[in-house]
């Protein structure tokens, strides 16, 4: 039997028993998971109120998700579009697609067509009464998920360590605040704010949503910094392991 060197057996043992590397897009992935589920909540909201309008025709493509009987303040109609010209069917379809988004975000995003599926689910949700206010939000999430995933594979795209560290530290707060302010804006759009003029409530609602959108951008940029830090830490650990 030919002799096997100690170095080769040691290397084989190391590679065979090394724990699988943690994906270096974890923060980007988590951003898309959390925000995708939050946006799905908005679609479910619309669908729920559409079903309350019953088995009645929509009389067109553009609809008010919240009917006159359910409206809680002057501007609380939550505009939407639908290709299904029936409120009950539209609401059921919107709620079903909203629910379908959740497992796709949790388990489907890292599949071959994960990001494409994410986009198609939300486009379909928009087309069946899921609302229009979240369109810019989910397009932003999809674009970052695709673009940053490519950047993470490009070792030439670097951040200076101090910048990377500062941005990475902001990531959890940026993600949490973006999701929170989106939900705040959503709930204000439905329930209003008692004691305030309708135009003031509308301004507060849009301010919360605008802040959520700005923080969404920050969450992805900071998440990218976090992922790059993990990438560099992983390569440094591999280099140390190879020298041993």
Quick overview:
This protein has helices at residues 6-17, 26-52, 87-108, 114-127, 135-153, 161-191, 198-243; strands spanning 62-64, 79-81.
Describe it.
Helix content is 70%, strand content 2%. It has 244 residues and is an all-alpha fold. The chain has a two-stranded antiparallel ribbon. α2 (26-52) runs antiparallel to α3 and α2 (26-52) packs antiparallel against α5 (135-153). Mean pLDDT is 84; it is low at 1-22.
Keywords:
single chain, 244 residues, mainly alpha, two-stranded antiparallel sheet, 70% helix, flat, disordered N terminus
SSE diagram, text form:
Blueprint: H1 6-17, H2 26-52, E1 62-64, E2 79-81, H3 87-108, H4 114-127, H5 135-153, H6 161-191, H7 198-243
Antiparallel strand pairs: 1-2
Helix pairs in contact: 2-3, 2-5, 2-6, 2-7, 3-4, 4-5, 5-7, 6-7
Summarize model confidence as the mean pLDDT: 84
Ranges with pLDDT <50 over ≥5 residues? Answer: 1-22
Compute the gyration radius: what is it?
A: 23 Å
The chain-level structural class is mainly alpha
Number of helices: 7
In what range is the share of β-strand residues? under 5%
What's the order of the H and E elements? HHEEHHHHH
How do the strands line up in the largest sheet? Answer: 1-2
N-to-C span: 27 Å
């Amino acid at each position: 039997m030919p002799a096997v060197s100690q170095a080769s057996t040691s290397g084989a043992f190391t590679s065979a028993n090394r724990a699988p590397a943690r994906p270096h897009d974890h923060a980007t992935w988590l951003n898309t998971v959390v925000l995708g589920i939050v946006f799905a909540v908005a679609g479910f909201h619309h669908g729920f109120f559409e079903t309350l309008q019953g088995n009645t025709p929509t009389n067109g493509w553009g609809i008010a998700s919240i009917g006159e009987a359910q409206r809680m303040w002057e501007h609380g109609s939550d505009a939407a579009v639908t290709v299904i010209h029936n409120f009950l069917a539209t609401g059921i379809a919107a709620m079903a697609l909203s629910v379908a988004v959740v497992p796709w975000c949790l388990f489907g995003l890292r599949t071959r067509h994960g990001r494409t599926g994410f986009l198609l689910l939300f486009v379909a949700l928009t087309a069946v009464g899921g609302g229009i206010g979240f369109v810019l939000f989910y397009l932003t999430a999809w674009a970052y998920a695709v673009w940053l995933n490519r950047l993470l594979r490009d070792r030439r795209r670097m951040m200076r360590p101090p910048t990377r560290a500062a941005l990475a530290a902001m990531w959890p707060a940026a993600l949490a605040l973006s999701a929170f302010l989106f939900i705040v804006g959503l709930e204000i759009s439905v329930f209003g704010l008692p004691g305030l003029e309708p135009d003031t409530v509308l301004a507060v609602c849009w301010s919360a949503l605008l802040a959520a959108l700005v923080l969404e951008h920050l969450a992805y940029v900071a998440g990218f910094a976090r992922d790059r830090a993990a990438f560099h830490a992983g390569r440094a650990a591999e280099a140390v392991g190879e020298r041993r």
